[in-house]
Design a protein that fits this description.
mainly alpha
Amino acid sequence: MAAARALVLTLVITLAVVLQVALFPYVSLGGVVPNLALLVVVAAALVRGPEFAAVIGFLAGLAIDLAPPADHIAGRWALALVVVGYLAGRVRHDARTSALAAVVTVAASSFVGTSVFALSGMVLGDPTVPVGETLSVIPTAVLYDVLLTPFVLPLMMRLLRRLEPHQVAY
């Protein structure tokens, strides 16, 4: 059963990354696309907690970092989504109780993830995009992710609940 859960999670992450890098550039606003991988990580955080979401965040971020046409230093999205997974998982009890709390969690996660990505580029001296330009896309990224939340987050949370191992009562 654990292998089936791993396979489903791998397929979900792969689908999210493929849509994000192959399809969504056609609907970008100023070069910003919705971050489906971030929404998968937030859903994992709200259902399973910070440790699980941090692992999913690392895997999803690494997939984004390595997927063509990546033009940045590898590891930046992995770092950003690990931080997002951990922080979103820490507030999961509040966000599971209401839709508004879940949307606020996504908005905060999008802000944190995009900021960590931008700041890590500044620290590493990544020359591909100037810091000022990177920081200016944060509001658009947050808006895009929040608009996609009602369509993605409930489905992902339902899927992750079904994949959650049953608790054995002793």
